[in-house]
Amino acid sequence: MQKYKVAVLGPIPRDHIVTHRGEVIEKYGCATHTAIGLAKLLEDKGTVYPVSHLRKKDEASVKELLNDYTNINLDHITSDADQGDIISLKFIDQNNRLEKQTGFMNPIIPEDIEGLLDCDVFVCVPITDFEIPLETLKYIKEHSDALIVFDAHGPTNTCTTSGDRRTKFWIDRDQWLPYIDVLKMNLEESKCCWFEKEYRLEDLGHISENDTSHLPAFADHALNHGVKSLIVTLDSNGGAVFFKEKDVLRQEIVPSVKVDHVIDTTGCGDSFAGGLGYGLLGDATNYVRATKYANTLGALRTQGRTFDVFKTKTETDEIILKTYGSI
User: Fold this and answer.
1) Using alpha carbons only, what angle is made at residue 165 by residues 57 and 79, rounded to the nearest 5 degrees?
2) Rounded to an integer, what distance in angstroms lies between the CA atom of residue 57 and that of residue 199?
């Protein structure tokens, strides 16, 4: 039986969250969602290797949390520089929030992934623009046959000196695309990736919120620059999946997994990325199948405040079959 190896690169921030219902949640976020969701699906068929940097005061707590999962290897979680992300989130409504960042992880560099170049998939989930440098993706591409799943949340977000987290244009996008196999983002981030060469001043900041008309052109551009699939999450409308067959651009909409009551949406994107990584194991070009797993993990993430929301492989497959009719 083949044993898979999946690396998850990204911060494990200390999150302080105020939900849209006024509830206060304190927990470790980002790569923990990705790693635990993957671990639950892999069961005894593989190992997850989180790669992250922490504050020394957080290392024991994070490792205690992840140690509950026997197929998560903790060797690449370190605190040598005593730096880690600290995030404050205040939700205005179910999907929109104000963000502050007051702690900053030192970037993940090639030395941090020593011993992991034989992984089947690297799932990269940066949340700010400094955490996974382009040089690290280049190193993986040059020294590994692994598939690279990359979340554009990182390069489309930055932090000001007052701690405010802000979206930004991904101006050097084309330098990154050749080193990414599956590029994942939400609709807002896609508008940070497909921009005009020059704007009128009055047009800046007035991009239509729900417009998706730019996606085919952006997808065609990304796929012509080395990306194998672009996947854009559309909240309750599911995911738009773009890929090419015989040089022809194809678009598939994979509907969302319906949930009756949303408790906490923090970490949904990170969970989605984990589902993509799992769904591509053993079938690296079945992007629709991967998005079914991604949608399911994202939906499960909304169902509680702890990591108990994630299900076994059998239970997850049952949800997929009920929603889509096939895996």
Assistant:
1) 20
2) 45
- Which positions ≥6 away from 3 have C-beta within 8 Å? 45, 46, 47
Phi-psi region of 14 (alpha: psi -120 to 50; beta: other; left: phi over 0): beta
User: Going by C-beta distance under 8 Å and a sequence separation of 6 or more, which residues neighbour residue 25?
Assistant: 15, 16, 17, 18, 19, 264, 266, 305
Ramachandran quadrant class, 237 (left: phi over 0; alpha: psi -120 to 50; beta: rest):
alpha
Please give the pLDDT value at position 209: 73
Asked if 53 contacts 11 with a C-beta cutoff of 8 angstroms, the reply is yes
**Amino acid letter at 56?**
K
Mean pLDDT of the chain: 95
Average confidence (pLDDT) over 17-34: 90
Farthest-apart Cα atoms in the chain, separation: 59
Of 130-134, 201-205, 230-234, the least confident: 201-205
Of 23-32, 73-82, 113-122, 241-250, the poorest mean pLDDT is in: 23-32
